[in-house]
C-alpha cells in the first residue's frame, strides 16, 4: 500500500468547541443536546477534517461560569490566555500548510464574547454583582476576544487567513433552518 496515497481530503475546518460539544456552553444557552448535528453533517458531507478548538471560557472559568460579555473578558490576562490557545491552533495550521493541506474555514459561535465572528456581546451594565439582564440586549457587531487573537496569530505567521464564519446558534429568536441553509451554502462555496 502506498502510504502517501490514502483517502484524506487534505481539507480542514477549525471549529469552535461548543459547536461540536454543547456541554462547553455557559448554562442556559444550549439549543441542542450534545452537538449541532447539522453542522457536523455539513462538514462531513464535504469531506472536511474537523479541528476542534479549545474553549477559552471553559478552560479558564469552568462550566459553572456566569454569562459574560466581551467587555468583561477584554482584559490583558484573558487576552493572553486566548493568545496561547490561538498560537496552538496556528501551529496546527502551519503544519497543515506545510503538508499542502487547505484550511478552508474557521467556524465561530456568533454572539459569543470570545468566539463571535461577526456579532458578539457587549454591555457596560454587566459587571459587579450578578443581575438578571437579557443577553440578547447585549448583542452588537464585532468579534469575540479569542477570534481577534486567532486572526492576529494567523497573520503574524504570514499564513493565508481562511474565511471566518459565525453560526448564531444561541439566538432563540433566529430561524435555525435558515441558519443551517446559509451555513451549508457557505461551506459549499469554500469547498469549490
Q: Could you describe the 3D structure shown?
A:
- The chain has 192 residues and is α/β, with parallel strands linked by helices.
- It folds into 2 domains: 11-107, no CATH class; 136-191, no CATH class.
- The protein has helices at residues 17-20, 37-45, 56-61, 70-73, 76-98, 145-156, 176-190, and strands spanning 11-15, 49-52, 102-109, 119-121, 139-141, 164-167.
- The strands form 2 sheets. The protein has a 4-stranded parallel beta sheet with strand order 2-1-3-6, with helices on both faces. Strands 4-5 form a two-stranded antiparallel sheet.
- Helix 2 packs parallel to helix 7 (176-190) and helix 5 packs across helix 6 (145-156).
- The protein starts with 10 loop residues before the first strand and ends with a helix.
- The mean pLDDT is 91.
Q: Strand portion, in percent?
A: 5-15%
Strand order of the largest sheet: 2-1-3-6
Shape estimate: globular
Uncertain residue ranges: none
User: How far from one another are the termini?
Assistant: 29 Å
Task: Describe the secondary-structure layout.
Blueprint: E1 11-15, H1 17-20, H2 37-45, E2 49-52, H3 56-61, H4 70-73, H5 76-98, E3 102-109, E4 119-121, E5 139-141, H6 145-156, E6 164-167, H7 176-190
Parallel strand pairs: 1-2, 1-3, 3-6
Antiparallel strand pairs: 4-5
Amino acid at each position: 500500500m502506498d502510504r502517501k496515497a490514502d483517502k484524506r481530503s487534505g481539507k480542514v475546518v477549525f471549529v469552535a468547541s461548543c459547536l461540536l460539544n454543547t456541554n462547553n456552553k455557559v448554562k442556559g444557552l444550549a439549543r441542542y443536546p450534545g452537538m449541532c448535528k447539522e453542522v457536523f453533517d455539513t462538514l462531513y458531507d464535504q469531506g472536511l477534517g474537523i479541528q476542534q478548538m479549545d474553549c477559552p471560557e471553559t478552560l479558564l472559568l469552568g462550566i459553572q461560569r456566569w454569562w459574560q460579555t466581551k467587555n468583561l473578558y477584554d482584559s490583558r490576562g484573558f487576552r493572553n490566555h486566548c493568545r496561547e490557545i490561538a498560537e496552538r491552533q496556528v501551529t496546527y495550521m502551519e503544519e497543515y500548510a506545510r503538508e499542502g493541506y487547505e484550511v478552508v474555514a474557521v467556524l465561530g459561535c456568533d454572539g459569543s464574547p470570545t468566539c463571535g465572528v461577526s456579532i458578539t456581546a457587549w454591555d457596560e451594565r454587566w459587571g459587579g454583582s450578578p443581575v438578571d439582564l437579557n443577553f440578547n440586549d447585549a448583542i452588537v457587531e464585532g468579534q469575540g476576544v479569542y477570534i481577534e487573537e486567532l486572526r492576529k496569530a494567523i497573520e503574524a505567521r504570514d499564513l493565508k487567513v481562511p474565511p471566518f464564519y459565525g453560526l448564531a446558534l444561541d439566538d432563540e429568536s433566529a430561524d435555525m433552518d435558515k441558519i443551517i441553509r446559509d451555513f451549508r451554502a457557505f461551506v459549499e462555496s469554500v469547498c469549490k
